[in-house]
Amino acid sequence: MNLKRISCFCCAMAGAALLSALPSRAAPSAGGFYLHDGDRVVMYGDSITDQKLYTVDTETYVTTRFPNLKVDWTAAGWGGDTVRGGGGGPIDVRLNRDVLPYKPTVMTIMLAMNDGGYRLFDQSLYTVFTGGYQHIIDVVTKDNPGVRFTFIEPSPYDDVTRAPNFPGGYNAVLIKYGQFLTTLKVAGTPPADFNTPMNDMLTKADAADPTDAQKILPDRVHPSPAGHLVMTEALLKAWNAPAVVTSVAIDTSTKSVSSAENTKVTGLTVGPTIEWDQLDGSLPMPYDQGDKTTALVLSSSDFIQAVDQEPLKVTGLAAGSYDLKIDGADAGKFTNDQLAGGINLATLPTPMFDQAQAVRKLVADRQNWHSQIYHGVEATYWGSTDPAVKKAQDDFVAALLTAEQKLVDQEKAAAIPAKHHYVLTLAP
Asked: d(Cα 278, Cα 265) in Å, to the nearest integer?
């Protein structure tokens, strides 16, 4: 949330304290990552953005992967939106109420699903889309000359797990709309393509399990939480997000730590059991590890490889199976060969994963809270000329934003990695 929001109630928010700098520790270099310290990100779109799933997952990734990075987040999706606006009001109302007051330094835009009309390509609708999209860019850029855009090529209409409704299918129309975004020349990243990786994943999932594949986009438009993971990955790739959470290699034959990336390993002892402590710089990406549809999506995409690598290698072990415990809790049983080749802790039930899940819940709570502000209070009373109504609205929104900042502080505090104790024991 941007505490410097320019509006009648900004004075109530000025001076609200952010968390002090986190303790110094090894951390992934943010030099190649697209977001900067102090960025204000507004994620704008229609109902797919308003699902608050890829928006929550993206914010969660950045919060847990870069706990020292200070970034403000505003999710501004509204069901039914087009480049002309929609249920939340005409486009200029939407921009002036839900975007410009937050002074974005980075803005993602995901539109087109509704703009194409769910029918065969219509040149007149396409012309409205291209002109309307440029209007959004012009309005936001005029208010924030330094804003950096990430345009999003729209997620697919599912013509993979069900037969298209007409020759060629509606997704082919969306692809054409997405191609327009590649022609725009503005500051920012190349467009983030949500369509191609989602379609590729749907094709693989449909071949593996046609029944569960239809659950990924249950209404053919709005992805399930599992589907949003692939969209999140696409956006993070556009932002040059690192795949590695941490990486540790231990050589028991020399009783030494061969390598440690983005973590500090201490207290290594090699005997009947192998024990050590880790203080990591990041947390893994949380998702529903017990959900069948999520498992299908992950096996049909490269999400884990692209953004969720937490390898642990232990070499020099005697032949056998080994129990891994972290903070006394079972993390899994692995052979010496598996450990020598490396296991990915990010996919296991670990205390680090549990901590990341807790952060994600706080992020979701905070985004849902903010949604009530602009969907409810501001949308209801926006534009009122009654001074008493306007003052009451400003005071109420200021109080809600103050409460929201407390949720932001909780997110940041919850994302600070804790030290963990590892024990590896030869199983009977």
From this structure: 5
